Amino acid sequence: MADIKPFAPVKLVCGIIAGSTDMFRIAENRLAASYGPVDARGPRVPFLDTAYYTGEMGPGLSRMFLAFRDLICPDRLPDIKIETNALEDELREKSGAGGRTVNLDPGIVTGAALVMATAKDFAHRPPLQKGIYAHLELLFTKAGVKRLEWTYPDFRTDEHIPFFMAVRKSYLEALIPRVKPLR
């Protein structure tokens, strides 16, 4: 029988879609209060590949990604998705807007992949727990990044890929045990 080992810690990331600089700032501050310091920020890129959120959130949306310094156990991802959904609702209520003012998409970076959490079931999304599914977005290979048939269009872009590669690199470096220099 194969030995069952505990999961390796992973790097928490979160995508933010919003229409205003203030909402990006508020969301980042709230996320950092819950998940620790942000150690990487991707570029804010216009969210143009779909109008999925425009009806609810309005025009002029952008997406950016954050990565958090502290590694987490991957089995926390479903709870984090539930928490970020609750934060979306809280920020909507505070703003008095009819729809969401921000969309938050948590995920994890491992040495091999970017996996995002979603509440939307589909054939290629395995269930995790509590109504949350895993959505495999990208594979990291020796040759670079492999985009999958179902990778969301904005995750495929040349604007976001360097961010994910840099986060993966910092994640792998964080796993290397620190050796004290000889004196």
- Beta-strand portion reads 25-35%
Amino-to-carboxy terminus distance: 45 Å
Alpha-beta classification: alpha+beta
Shape: globular
Structural domains: how many? 1
Number of strands: 9
What can be said about the biggest beta sheet?
9 strands, antiparallel
**Number of helical elements:** 5
- Reading the helices and strands in chain order gives EHEEHEHEEEEEHH
Q: Supply Rg.
A: 17 Å
- Provide the helix percentage: 25-40%
In terms of per-residue confidence, which ranges show pLDDT below 50 for 5 or more consecutive residues? Answer: none
Give average pLDDT, whole number.
92
Labels describing this entry:
183 residues, alpha+beta, 9-stranded antiparallel sheet, 31% helix, globular
What's the gist of this structure?
With 183 residues, the chain is of the alpha+beta class. It has helices spanning 21-35, 54-57, 77-95, 153-156, 161-175, and strands spanning 10-18, 38-41, 45-46, 62-72, 102-109, 113-118, 127-129, 132-141, 144-147. The protein has one domain.
